[in-house]
Every structure is written in structure tokens, then in C-alpha cells.
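Discussion board: Methods & Data

I've been asked by a reviewer to show the raw model output for two of the constructs in my manuscript, not just the figures. I'm not sure how much to include, so I'm pasting the format here to get opinions. Each protein appears as its amino acid sequence followed by a line of C-alpha cells. Is this the kind of thing reviewers expect to see in a supplement, or should I convert it first? Here is construct A:
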Amino acid sequence: MTHTYVLPLADAEAVLETVGGKGASLARLSNAGLPVPGGFHVTTAAYRQFVAENALQPRILAALEAVDVAQPSTLEAASRAIHDLFAQAHVPPDIAGAIARAYIDLPGDHPVVAVRSSATAEDLPDLSFAGQQETFLNIHGLEAVQEAVKRCWASLWTARAIGYRAQHSIDQNAVSLAVVVQMLVHAEAAGILFTANPVTGQRDQAMISAAWGLGEAVVGGLVTPDTLTMDKATGSVLARETGDKQVMTVLLESGTAEHPVPETLHRAPVLDDRATAELVRLGVQIEHLYGVPMDIEWALAEDKFAIVQARPITALPEPEAPPPTEWKLPDPKGQYLRASVVELLPDPLTPLFATLGRAAINAGTKRLGAELAGSEDGWPDETVVTINDYAYYTARFTPRQMLGLLTTMPFAMPRMMRRAETRWRDEVHPRYVETIQRWQARPLNELPATDILTGVRQLADASFDVYALYQSGIFPSANMSEVLFKGVYDRLIKRPEDPPALTYLLGFDSTPILAEKSLYDIAEWCRTRPALATYVANTPARQLAAQLKSEQAAPGVEAEDWLQWQKRFDAHLQQYGHIIYDLDFAKPVPADDPAPLLDTCKMFLSGQCASPYARQQSAAERREQATLGMLERLRGLRLRLFRRLVTWAQKSVPLREEGLADLGLGYPLLRQMLLELGRRLVQAGAIERANDIFWLIQAEAGQASAALDKGESVGSLAEAVRQRKAVWRAEKRVTPPQVLPPKSKWMGIDLNKLGPTRVGEQTGDVIRGAGTSPGRVTGTACVLHGPEDFDLMKPGDILVATITTPAWTPLFARAAAVVTDIGGQLSHGSIVAREYGIPAVLGTGVATQRIRSGQVITVDGGAGVVTLAQPGA
């Protein structure tokens, strides 16, 4: 068999398998006409032949057997052993001859070269392997070149390279190494060019690091280089930081060394504006060649740039944008409040929800608002608006609308409250279910794109019809009945030895509580299968979630037990997987991401939390005993008043959670439909990934759907999606004002008192909010930003979050207390905290900003105060 041991630098056969990642990249750059120093490749075939003729592979693998990534000393020992093997081995004559001929063909006598390692798993889009193998500079003479090639081969087995491959599960037996031999650039300056901003992720900017001498001082972090931020489109300098450059890498007679930079050059700019513009132009050319942002090493000699390496940037952050600083009102005379439905929308709205979803909310609210006001003109067209993409509730009505409300509301509201449960059970909920079933019956992959979008609109409309009814009937009835009962009980009925009013309202079932019981039942069943229980207990929730659809049983688990486990959990998701974390349908529901539920199941399996059945039964028994005792004791008017109010509250209050949990009933299907549309748009080249569909506005999704159905070209929306994501991330970094304009009053009422505490008032070691569930607890805070963080919370932690929705309910079983940014006395978090008997302080406005995970805090749910422990206290 004939082996090719050496290839010219730009040879067509210089691909990853033959010349490694670095070599393939240099060949590609050279063939594209970019200024790459000339040279040649010593191929992977040469490395494999060298290893084979010296019988090294079995001894390499033997040296690796004792490697433990967690023990660096084992990596060093293996590396030393393998290095000794390479040092003692000989280079086969045919390989040595091929290297000699290629070196002699380079221009000049005894040409000075750089000898660089190029591994087959290197400079890849997802794994750079930067710095894992060796480079040797200022090599001249055939014998020195041959030795440098051999040392490069050995560097495939440095301790850091062995450990890196082990951490990323790369087969140590399959890797190979090529070597690039290039003419050395006698650089006056060198550095790195990123064709995207590596700090902010902005793709329209480039960033240059530059220092005097060779590039090794920059790459090795030995010098503080100049840093320039550039506009890629114009090549102009946006920002320049001139470093105090103390050292530089220089050439010696053989090899390199670090020398002091002449004092006159310490603070002198390395590159002028003309040179930086030329370098950015080369970078843009390279980025276009690869189609991705690039990390480029460059050198400058005699006023000419040379490109010595280029690889895709790994771990590039998503682009960012400047955070908003102004909160411009849609109506300069309007008043806006972060309350009501907004409690379920803590983050900036994604574009599709802000257009399609918000339109459905406003349409549903308008319909019931018109019933409340007596006419369609009596209610604002937009109840929910967006300011910097945050949802706000409109608090301002025109004088005519206000007059109409004052005239009709006293009669319409009681009627709507009386009919709310019946309308929900007999009209709105069945209509929602019918809409879901009708679209489920149609094969999704056969639906035209425009039909998919129609189905999404209908599901959204049905969902927000539930919400509108909830807001106009169920929620007011529950809240009013609770407030009235508590007020009358505390003032006219309660004696010092009597239980608090809340005792009479706890211990009822609701969908979130039933969902928690379902997870507990699964854990208890699992406990009866020891092998399955052990596997579930010891396997990360994310891994379990990935295995839920696997037909193969987990290791050591009986196939039938595994099948039953899958069926039981799937049944749970079918019944409860719609309970939302967030009203924005861009956010996954439990049916999409069951890992947080699996984590709760693991918690129940561990026995760290009490049975929800026992907890609820205890509350129900206290409620029944207290109610019966009061009915036996009271007489006359107080008896009649107590019986009427407690009956109303006990009937209405449980419906509050029931109605809220109903909102997401169609979300699993709605999200499936949108992701199917997203997949079609990916195939059409309009967006990069299916879930980018949520970053289109409704009009764009409609136009793209129509084009798909007609077989027409769909223009790319990828850049618009990237920009919107950047803006969204910037907006998420700010805290939206609770009331706009600040200090607004509505009918003489300070609107700030209707929402969370003003952020500006929260200073010092005490954070104030609404005390919504009594009790006092000191413990460790666990700040959770969403369901992706649920596994961070341990039993006994204090849950700190922006909001909690029904899908957060299982976390209350392990929480010692609850603190939120948004919410009040009648919010979901308050209701559930009282069910669980744990203190809660809601509506602080700043909890997730001021409190850190691991910090010790004291929560006083009676006083509405959270106290931060002093450092060292």
C-alpha cells in the first residue's frame, strides 16, 4: 500500500482526516487566496506509520489505563510514560525522506520554519482543543525539523490533551496527529482577531488583540495587548484600549524567548487605523469563507499581514444589546401597572406572544369587559400593552368609560361572579377542550402551514377566554369571599383561642395539588421496585427525561418495570403536563420538559419530604373541626353570617387555583404546532432552528406560512431573530417599574400600593413586601430563575423567585419559606404557601436581585419582611 506522508500546504487532499484541523484550515485559507505562509503537511498517515513500526499503540493504551481525570497526577504520569516511548522511537526512513525533500523544496538555504501540531480532533466548531498540542518556532535545519515533527507527534499525549479528550468522551484510540511545517513570519507585531465580539456576542463587531513581536506572548497571556473593537461593515474603530505592553516574544538564533519591550513602545499603539481596517477586511473574508464567526491568529511583517491560523469561535455568547433606559408610554396620558395577568408574564414577551398571544388576551378581555361595561365602547381596546417588551396592564379609562363602569359594574359584577363557575364548566372549558380535540384529530404533518397558524390562533383564543372569565368572575369571587370572610371572622366572631381565618379555607384539592399527589404516587410505586428505585434515585433528572421515550430498559432494571415506569409518567404528563410555568407560550411546559417533575419524583423517593396526602388530610381535618365547632357555638345573626360567608369562601377559593391551572390546557398542542411550522421554516432556510418561530411577529409567521403553502421562496429571517434575541436579553437584565408613570394615582388610590414594593425603597439589610403566609424561618436562600433551575433546590431551602405559577407547586413541598419579586396577598404563591404552612413574603420587587443563592436570610411572613444576614454572622 502506498502512503502519502507529505502534502503541499494547499493540496486538494489536505482535509481533516489527512492533515488535522489546523492543517485543513490553512489549506482552505491558502486555496482561497488569503495570505498564508507557504509550507507543507506531514500527514496523519506518517504518524500512524511511525506508531505502527515502533509498536507504540498497545503501550500507549496501557499507559492510559490508570488515568483518572479527577486525579491530575495520573494524567502527568501517563503523559511522561508516552513521551519517553516517542523519544526512544525512530522515524521510518521513507517518512524521514519525504520530510527532507519537502523541506529542501522550501525557498532559501536552511529556511526558518514554524512546526505546528494539527490533530484530527482540533479547531472544530464545538471543540477547539486550543493549546492542547505543541508548536515549535524558529526551527531551521533538516535535523531540527525532523526532531520537531517527532516532538509534535508526542504532544498528542500531553497531560492536558489526554484530560481534554477524556472530559469530552473522545476515543483515545481513534485520534491521530498531523504536522504543519510553514515558513516562519518574522513578525514585528502579532495577535488575535475575533470576527464577532467575544464579550457581547455582537456579530456586527470584530475585536483585535495586538502586541509587539511574535504572537506567542498574546496567545499565552504573557502580555496586556492593545484591544480594539471594530465595526465590521466599515472597518472603523469603535473603541481602543492601548495596553501597557511589558514583554514581547522574539526570535533567538534557535527558538524564541520573552524580552522586555522598549520603553518607547510600552504605550504605543501597535496598529494604526489603516492597518486595523485591512485586518478586519481579511477577517470578514475568512468569516464568509467558513460561514461562521472566526478566531484568527495573525502576524505583521514589513507592513503585510499573514494569517497563521483560523478556527471557528467556540463558546461565543449570544449577541447582546444595550439595556433600555427609558420607559416610553404608549399613551403619554396613560397609566400602566405590572399586575393582574402580568403576574404570569415576568419576563419580556417574545415577539410571537407579544403579537399573537397578546392580541388573544386583549380580545378575550374586551369581550368580557364589554359585558361588564355594558357596551364594547365601554372597555379599552388594549387591556395589556408592552413597554420595552414587558407586559403592562392599562389602568386608565376615558371619562366616558369610567362613567359607564360606575353605572353598570354594581349590577354586572355580581351577576358575572355568580355565573362564573357555571360558565367555566359548561361553556368556556368545554369549548377549549373541543378546540384542542378538533386540532388533535388532524395529522399535524399533513396540515398546510396557514392552517397550523389558524389552529394556533384558535387555541390561544380559547385559552385566553378562560383567563378573561377567570379575571372577571372566578378570581374576584374567590378573593372577595376570602377577604369578606376573614374581615367578618376577625372582627365579629374570633375569640383568642379560636383558629385563624385561613384554617377554614385550607385542605381542598386543586389541579396543582392533584399533580403533586400523582408524582408522589409514582415515587411510592417506584419504591416497590428496588432496582428501578435505585436507578431513578441515582440518575440525574435530565438523563431520566431523555430516557423516557427509550424502548431499551435502563441498566439493571427489569424491562417490564421500566415500561410501567414510562407509562405511569407519561400518564402524568398527559393529565398534568399542561400546567404552565409562564403564560408566554414560547416557554416550555412540563410536557415539553419533564426534568423538573422527575426531580420532584426523586425527592419524594428519597423520603426527604412528607406525603402530600398526609399534609392535605391534616389541613382538611382542622378545617372541618373548626367549621363544625363554630357552627355549634354561634347563634343568631353571627351564625347566619358565618355560615353564609364560610360556605361562599369554601366554594370559591379552591376554584382560584383550578381556573389558573386550566389556562395551559392547549399549550402542549399549540407548541407542537408552532414547532412543526418552525421546522418547515428551517427547511426553507428562513430561520436557523425550529424554536426561532417564537421570535417572529405574527405578520411574519403568516406571510411565511402563505409562502410555504404556495411553494414560494421564504426570505431569511435569521438576522432579525438574532437581533430580537439580543434585545430581549438586554431587556431581561433590567427591572421594569411596577407603575408607569411613577407615583401614579387612580381615583385617588396610589397604584404603587397595588403592586410590589417600589424598587428604589429597598435598601439596606431588610427587604419588605407583602406578608402573605404567617411564620418566621431562617434558612439558606435558593434563587431560581425558571424550571431549568429546579434541581438546585434542596429540602429546607428558602425559595426565592420572580414569581411562582401552578407548575411551581411541587417545590413548596421542599421549601422552608417563599420570597418573590411579584405578587400579593391573593397571588398563587400566597395561596399555596398557606396550604403548605410555610412563611411567604411576596411583591418585594428586588428579591432575585438582592438575594444570592447560599445566603442566609430570615423570612417573617407575618410582618412581610426578609432580613439578610450580615457577612460572617
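Construct B, same format:
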Amino acid sequence: MTLLADEEASAAAAPPARRTWRDRLQPRYLTLGLAAIAVAYLALVPAGTMLYASLQSDFLGFSPSTWTLHNYAATFTAPGFGEMVFNSFAYAGATAIVSTVVGFGLAWLVVRTNTPAKGFARIAALVPLIVPGILNTVAWSLLLYPNRGALNQFFTDVHLPTFDVLSLPGMVFVQSIHVIPVAFLMGTAAFGSMDSSMEEAALASGSSPARTFRVITLRLIRPAILSAALLMFVQTISTFEVPQLIGVPARRYVFISEIYTALQNFPPNYGTVGVIGVFVLVVACAGLYVSQRLGRKGAVATITGKGFRARETDLGRWRWAGFAAFILFFLIAVVLPIGMLLWSSVLPGYEAPSLKALHDLTLSNFHQILVRPGLLASLRNSVVTAVSAALIATLLSSLVAYITVKSRMRGRFVLDALATVPIAVPSVVMGVGILYWYLVAPLPVHLYGTLAILTIAFVTITMPYAMRYIAPGMTQIKDELEEAAAASGASWAQTFRRVFIPLLMPSLLSAFMYSMIVAFREISAAIFLYTSNTEVVSVQVYDLYSNGSYPVVAALGVVIVVFLTLLAVLVRLVGSRFGIKRS
């Protein structure tokens, strides 16, 4: 027995056999290696190409191009650059503060208090995620446009001050409505994982609830709040809809509107676009890095595994004030914008809500969707690119999750980082980088002007989010299952197909649906990559709005919201059946 134990110990201590080139050419390593190359390609090429363009004297021009810093000097010293930087940081910073305060406030009411109707509150806070940002912007433009906005007309009738949406505060308000749900999700996760024993100890020592909240709760949750605010800042500074539809008419130019203007000029100023894109990328990466550091600190400071429990604070009569806050947010974030879209969609032209306008109700705008040139084609293009991108992103993410979680391949941590990089790359920067690359890359297939280039952009943007669904599910699968399959003679491909995919099906379906929704509503990257034959529905909405076709935009918006709502309901049904919540 001792000899046998010694032999087993020696075998366990022996180093694993070195893999030969023949071993590395097995389908398993070839598949995983190709997936790793694809992820690295998708993550690094856009940013690298944009950096290259910013350092060229005549990128995509007719004269020979040389390395230079002239683009940086010219851009940073151009008239109005300082004002653009100020507007960008003021817009993103104020939005981050407003959205984080409101999102975390709603999360606190839902998770840590006895406020009634919490189920309704969760729905109210998450429904705005379904409404694409460009439709939310269009709706609030119709509601709060100076002098003739429907809500401003109501304020005038009841002798209340009006609100001019064509202003920096207007930009902050509209963008905050769109990103508050993201802050709410981060807030519910933070408050739900925070132990309440310290708060109970403070209350037992005679501290008032207000003082306990200020001294204990806010200090514990502060890293998560700062992390969420930085992420809101990064997301806001790279969005296209609000800066273009509200900021440009208000003459409040920010980074994204300047990039779009430079590309619309003839000839396009590629050097300036590259410089601003690199500047935005540096700011976004710095914000993401600080956010992750704060997030890790927040996890250490607020989560405990000893006697953990989430305590509800009894608000007494104030709980009805919390319920009123839920109703108010639902009215502002859901009822007003969706109601405005629905109202405008059944009128031949823009009219403020009134009894007189009821005589003009019509469904002709919905008929325009069927007969207007390009509308059905854009819907078809959106469905094709969104489904294709979701399938590819889900497949790539599942392979990357296997590498990072289950394999012992060298460099797997680098691959995990590369799969996360697109979160730090603003969508507009991603679109410009991909545009530059496929205009100059000596590839055997010309992709510019095809749906393939849009699909590549959507895959790159959605892949990190798909990873967030699949990696936790991969972690829950025990290694013994793979070992048992191998011992039974199954190849790696058979094991992955018959063991991992069935067990990961809830996570895979969830990742697919979320990726499809994100790709379907994406415009920040698509606006730089589409052509007349590859227009997607988000770009079509922007074009129609720019041309003044508000009723058709509203009708198309209603169709999009209904479609995305059905997708969200499908995700919930799949989750209740297959247990996505457990994964």
C-alpha cells in the first residue's frame, strides 16, 4: 500500500507531457486557436487602424502619406476645440451624476426598503432599455421642442415654466433617461450583495436612520457608486443620438458630433477624426480602468460571507413617497416618450395632443412603412445583421469562455482581457476604426458597402456582453463531466456539442437574445459604415427625422418598440423555463 501510494504521488507530481506539433493540430486546439485569433482581430484592429490614421499626413488621400504629428497639433489648436472638450465633459459628467443618483436611489428603494410595488418598480426601471436611444431622443424632442413641443405647450397653458430641450441641460436630461436603467441594474447588484450587519449595529447604538444611511450605507456603497458613475460617463461620451439630434441644433458640439461632421465634409478629414477618436478612446479606457479598480474595491468592502443577509429599512409613511417616485419615473421614462411616439404615429402631421386632433387619426404612416422605398429593406437588413451578429458573438463567446474557464492554454488571461476591450472602445470609435481598416486593408474580399462590415462591427460591440452571460454558466459545469465524456471515447467536439451546449443552453439563449437586441438598436457605429444598399433601421430613423418626416418616424418607432418588447418577453419566457436566473 505504501509503494502504491508513493507511485501515485510520483505520478501526480510528474509534469504533464509536453505537447507536440501533432497534438497542437488537433481539431480542439485549431478551433480554440482560431477563436482566439478572431477575438484579437476584432478587438485590436479598429483601435490600431484609427491610431495609424491619426499619425498619417494624408490618410486615404491621393498624395504620398508620411508619419506626422501635424494632425494632433492642428486639432488641439483649432478654434473651438477647448469649448468642444468642455461641452463633452460637462455633458458626460452631468449625465453620469444624474443617472447614477437616480438609478442608485431607485435601486435602494427596491432592494433595501419596504416600499410597495417593487415588481412594478423593476419593470418601470428596465423598460427604457427596450426603447432604442434614437427613438427616446426623437420622442423627447417632440415633447420639449421650444414653443411647439407638446409638453411645453401644456406647461404654457397651465402657466408653468417651459424647458428648452435644445440646450446642454436638455442633452443631459434626455441621455440620463436612457442610461438610468443601467445604473439601476448596477445599484440593485451592489445593494443586494451588501451585508446590513453594520447598519443594524449603528441603529442598535442609537443612530438615527438618516445618520446611519449617510455614515454607514453611503460609505459602504461609495466604490460601487463611483464605478457606476464612471461607466455612465464612458457610455455617454461615445453616444451618437443625443449629440447629433439635440446638441447640433443647440450648437453644443461634442466629440461625437465633431467626428460625424468631419466625415461628412468633402474631402473627409480623416486625420482629425483619428485624433478625436484616439482622444475619446484614451478617456474611455482611463475611465474603464478606474471603474474596474473601484468595482473591485467595492466588492471587498461590501460583500461578506459571514452571517450575510439583506435588511429592509422600514420607511414608515415615507414608503408611499418611494412609491410615488416609482410612478413619477415610470411616467417620465416610459409613458411620455412611448405615448408621444404612439400619438404622432396616428396623425398625418405633427400635432400636439388635443380633442380636435382626434378627428385626424389615421394609419397611413404605418402604411408608409410598407410602401416607402428603403424602409422594409432597412428592417430586413437590421434583422439579418442582428441575428448574424448575435449568432457569431454567442459562438465566439462560448469558445472564449471555455478557454478562459476550462482550459490551461497559455495566454488565456490575455484572451479574456481582449474579449473585454470593446467595452472600453466607444461604439463610434469602433465604427470609424472598422471603416478605416476595410478601406485600406489589402484583403482578398472587399467588405465595405456590404452587410458583412456591419455584422463585424455588431459582433465586436456585443461580444463582451455575451461573455457576461456565458462565462458564469461555464464556471458552473464541473470538470468531471468533460473527463467522463473523454473517458467514454468522445472527442472534444462531441463533448462540447453534447455536454457543454445543452448545459449552457440557458446562458447561450440569453446571450443571443441580448446581443440581438443591442445589435438591432445600434446606431453609433452603423452611422459610419452603412451605404445606400446596407442601411439599417436605426439609420433610417435618423434620416427620416432629419428630413422632417416625424409621423413616419413615430410609426416606425412603434413597430421597433413592439418588436424589441416581444424579444424581451421571449427572453423572460426562456428564462422561466430553462432557469436563466440560476445561470
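Answer (T.O., handling editor elsewhere):
This is acceptable in a supplement if you add a one-line summary per construct. For B, something like: Confidence is low (pLDDT under 50) at residues 1-17, 298-308, 579-583.
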